[in-house]
Specification:
Elements (H helix, E strand, L loop, with lengths): L2 H8 L6 E5 L3 H10 L3 E4 L3 H4 L11 H14 L4 E5 L8 H12 L5 E3 L7 H9 L4 E6 L5 H4 L9 H17 L3 E5 L3 H10 L3 E5 L8 E4 L1 H5 L16 H17 L4
Parallel strand pairs: 1-2, 1-8, 2-3, 3-4, 4-5, 5-6, 6-7, 7-8
Bound molecules: 3-methyl-2-oxobutanoic acid.
3-methyl-2-oxobutanoic acid binds next to strand 6.
Length: 255
């Protein structure tokens, strides 16, 4: 097993695991040098980098381009490449997509879906490629679901999520993201889960670790900030100030 994956698994129940998105060289280098455990080249790059309304417009070409840039920057963190919508419809296609992403130098891939994707995950893992699963809110299903909503709110939904986790584990994934899920449900799933759970919008301390979208963390995308985001900087305001100062400087008459 990849030693970076072993190090992540060894943290289960001992130390929280940190994961952050990055989509380009300078951001990935800063995030890596700051010491994050895992960098996710998420398909959220569709919104954060490319100006699409959601992740359903992201293609494999976009992911290959951005993953390669992140791989060039990351020296220590485990780099996970997200598999975009419509690139893992069958187990065979899933393996082909995973291989293409791994060819950029990524350490692992992530795909959305639990029980419905068990065979797809198994095909990738059996080829020696580490997989991070993703259950709860699945952003690639935003159109089918008519928006983003909290998952695990009813007993039936919570039980279905538990089955999703079990399927991801059976298929051989090393980790699973639990997105936008009732906090008590995320905690129950984590307790029953032998692999590393990573929460986002699933409550503080309910999972083995947390993932955040980089732009939410640093205030880099002021036009939409999810309710659960905790910005720790305001780089949008800093950029605006620097650009305004530059414009004023350029416009100043020369002596
Ligand atoms: O694409 C992404 O950034 C993600 C995280 C929200 C987990 O999938």
């Amino acid at each position: 097993m990849n030693s970076k994956i072993e190090a992540i698994l060894a943290k289960k129940g001992i130390a929280p695991v940190s994961e952050l998105t990055a989509y380009d060289y300078p951001t990935a280098r800063l995030v890596d040098e700051a010491g994050v455990d895992m960098i996710l080249v998420g398909d959220s790059l569709g919104m954060m980098m490319l100006g699409f309304p959601d992740t359903t417009h992201v293609t494999l070409e976009h992911m290959l381009h951005h993953t390669a840039a992140v791989v060039r920057a990351a020296k220590n963190a485990l780099v996970i490449a997200d598999m975009p919508i419509h690139t893992y419809e069958t187990p065979e296609q899933a393996l082909q997509t995973a291989r293409a992403l791994m060819a950029t130098g990524a350490d692992a891939v992530k795909l959305e879906g639990g029980a419905a994707k068990e065979e797809h995950i198994r095909a990738i893992v059996q080829a020696g490629i580490p997989v991070q699963g993703h259950i709860g809110l699945l952003p690639q299903k935003v159109k089918e679901e008519g928006g983003y909503r909290m998952h695990g709110k009813t007993d039936e939904e919570a039980a279905a999520m538990m089955r999703d986790m079990e399927a991801v584990v059976r298929a051989g994934a090393f980790s699973v993201v639990i997105e936008c899920t009732r906090h008590s449900v995320a905690a129950e799933i984590t307790k029953a889960c032998p692999i590393v759970t990573i929460g986002i919008g699933a409550g503080r301390g309910t999972c083995d670790g947390e993932v955040a979208v980089f732009h939410d963390l640093v205030g880099g995308f002021p036009w939409f900030v999810p309710g659960f985001a905790k910005p720790r900087a305001d780089i949008a305001a800093d950029i605006t100030r620097a650009v305004k100062e530059y414009i004023a400087d350029v416009q100043k008459p020369t002596e």
